[in-house]
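Residues determine shape. We examine one folded chain.
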Amino acid sequence: QVQLVESGGGLVQPGGSLRLSCVASGFTFSNYAMSWYRQAPGKERELVAGISMMGTSTTYADSVKDRFTISRDNSKNMVSLQMNRLKPEDTAVYYCKAIDLRSRTYWGQGTQVTVSS
């Protein structure tokens, strides 16, 4: 059974930090590129950051560059997103996504991040 389970979301003040984690099971994690997406109310889901299968390549949305860092640990089947200097506009549900070379895709259930004073 394939599962992607996100954790680490919550309420944080502007300028604060959060670390999201996504633990995978039920598939060969190292065969999948991993990404974090987010969806704010009334908006489309958007790519936040992505990382290649071996972690050698990363990509970021312009809005989060220099603030967010994506990483993965294939020995733990885990991908993480370190989020620093958070802004109210970062408020959204954050999802992790796995995709392989055949475009097989899995999504997690999401974790809420709220940035507010």
Q: What stands out?
A: The longest strand covers residues 18-25.
